[in-house]
Amino acid sequence: MALTNNKNVLRWLDEMIALTKPAHVEWIDGSDEQLQKLRDEAISTGEMIKLNQEELPGCLYHRTRPNDVARVEDRTFICSIKKEDAGPTNNWCDPQEMHEKLHGMYDGVMKGRTMYVIPYCMGPIGSPFSKVGVEVTDSIYVVLNMDIMTRMGADAFKQLGDESNDFVRGLHSKADVDPEGRYIVHFPEENTICSINSAYGGNVLLGKKCFALRIASYQGKQEGWMAEHMLILGVENPQGEVKYITAAFPSACGKTNLAMLIPPEIYKEKGYKVWTVGDDIAWMRIGPDGRLWAINPENGFFGVAPGTNTKSNPNALATTRKGTIFTNVAINKDNMTVWWEGLDKNPPVNAIEWKGAEVNGKEYTAEGNKLAHPNSRFTAPAVNCPCLSKEFDSPNGVPVSAIVFGGRRAKTAPLVYQSRSWQHGVFVGSIMASETTAAATGAVGVVRRDPMAMLPFCGYHMGDYWKHWLEMGEKLGDKAPKIFNVNWFRTDDEGHFIWPGFGDNLRVLMWILDRCEGKADAVETPIGFEPKAEDINIEGLDITVDTIRDLLNVDKDLWREEAKGIHEFYTKFGDKLPKELQDELATLEANLK
Ligand code: OXD
Ligand code: MN
Q: Three-state SS for 150?
């Protein structure tokens, strides 16, 4: 029975049924009973594997095809009506042409299968920030993941109401999981996403990257708000006041670790705490008080498993101990628990590696093979997180004091610096870059520019996106959050990381928050304001003030090279590059003379 009377939903659904021709249609109401039935069915067909229910209650395992293990940027399209609206950093195709192509591929694709109709809400139900999507899919794996990652079920239709047409249409079919026919397509002007021939997380959980970043960034531009690839965390001081920071880093720079960090002993003793609001996406609006407020539109964490352990991120590990779906990690066959590289130094002897082969895990890894795929994942409910913020479900979100950008740079970027203004901060975000981790062997890696960590996720022209950032800054005026850049990844001449990172990153966040409250000094450098070395608290650390001085050093020669790289990058954007950013680049160059 239909879960809504909304004619816009019903009309679209009729079209999807006529196109894909499923044998059955099942509305997902999100009830425990329905989800249990789907879990049982997926276990009986082998789509999901039941893990040890004593050690990992409610946890399931799923393995994808070896050709289907990550997001596919080269098959991801933004089909705006005008090519220039997609910009030079997105694949584009004419919407009509793409619809025709996809139509042929979706025609009858669900014959003999069940179509699941998933209503879901990104953001807390009842929040003015929240938006509704409907995903139809032929995959139970998608239904069970969407249950964890979103507010899924009948309540989402309450949020939408009976008349509204403001919902994102998502059509997914795993089809034959054929990489040649794999497409992840966004039609921003039609509020529509089409995904076909993949059954892997980021390509098929359409609420996440596809909606909450690509479509939502476009909506934000139209409606005056921002959808960003940012974590949200709160730092509580001993007086019980909590200040919030959002931070954007390219994929694989430790966003989940920072979002869940455990304060160093000296801060813990004094009563400091860190609270997680989100680890990947922030939707931000100007509140009635004129400040910028953020929500996490998601309801769970889709985290990279390898490298997660009791030291790097005990909170994430604890979050995965119940009600979690593991994808492409390894299984310990003796007790049906999970394992991945970096969990501990004890790979299971009787292991099932991620592709499904039974191997001696100790020998297999000793030969240099990986038991878990490097992009294997956990899908874990946010409520499991020991440090989940009590504001997680707050309809108004949290007020943002600071926005932090960062990347992985072996030499160029200092540990931390502050932008001179919002406009300069937009420049700092626009020049974000990361180096490939060849840096670990001493060689400086290849620089990949990833402005605001949004390069693969901005649903429109990056030049227009920067303009939108500048306009938001104008509206915020002196209530705008302060903008910073951090780099945890500077290396010494042997290629070793100098800064301890992980929980100790709080020491840098403390300077950032002190700056926001006017409590800390700064020194001016060619690239922005830096802390005085003595103002980064190193109590209890094995490093000296001189090391901090080194970490803050701005090498003018390297920055002159950097400026050349920025010029080159900026030329891509032609006359859509805001003049303000051109001016900021000129200022940087003048400062480096
Ligand atoms: C992610 C990513 O999966 O950024 O979050 O790639
Ligand atoms: Mn991400």
A: coil
pLDDT band at 444; cut points 50, 70, 90: low
Are 460 and 358 within one domain? no
Q: In this structure, which amino acid lies at residue 159?
A: Q
Is 285 within the bounds of a domain? yes
H, E, C per residue of 315-326: HHHHHCCCCCEE
Q: Each residue of 129-171: pLDDT tens digit?
A: 999 999 999 999 999 999 999 999 999 999 999 999 999 999 9
What is the residue with the minimal CA distance to atom 4 of ligand 1?
251
The verdict on residue 82 lying in a domain is yes
Whether 455 lines ligand 1, by a CB cut-off of 6 Å, is no
Domain boundary among 224, 245, 280: 224
Same-domain check for residues 519 and 371: no
User: Whose CA is closest to 185, among 107, 299, 121, 100?
Assistant: 100
User: Which long-range contacts does 52-59 make (Cβ < 8 Å, 24+ apart)?
Assistant: 52/335, 52/336, 52/337, 55/321, 55/335, 55/337, 56/321, 56/322, 56/324, 56/337, 56/338, 57/322, 57/323, 58/322, 58/323, 58/324, 59/320, 59/321, 59/322, 59/323, 59/324, 59/325, 59/326, 59/338
Q: What's the gap in Å between 280 CA and the centre of ligand 2?
A: 5
387 a catalytic residue: no
- CATH (domain of 335): 2.170.8.10
For residue 453, the enclosing domain spans 228-299+390-591
Query: At 202, which helix (H) or strand (E)?
Result: helix 201-204
Give the chain's radius of gyration (CA, Å).
Answer: 24
Averaged pLDDT score across all residues of the chain:
96
Which residue in 79, 253, 458, 516 is the catalytic one? 253
309 within ligand 1 shell (Cβ under 6 A): no
Question: Ligand 1 in contact with 251 (CB < 6 A)?
Answer: yes
Say if 110 falls within a structural domain. Answer: yes
pLDDT per residue as tens digits for the range 83-142: 999 999 999 999 999 999 999 999 999 999 999 999 999 999 999 999 999 999 999 999
| Residue that terminates a domain, selected from 358, 381, 404 | 381
DSSP state for residue 481 in the 8-state scheme: P
CB-CB contact of 252 with 92 (8 Å): no
CATH of the domain at 143: 3.40.449.10
202 lines ligand 1 (CB under 6 A): yes
- The gap from C-alpha 430 to its chain's centroid, in whole angstroms, comes to 18
CATH number at residue 477: 3.90.228.20
Cα dist from 226 to 160, 403, 592, whole Å: 20, 13, 33
C-alpha of 245 from chain center: 15
Domain count, the chain: 3
Amino acid found at 80: S
String of DSSP letters for 369-380? --SS-TT-EEEE
Claim to verify: residue 42 and residue 23 sit in the same structural domain: yes
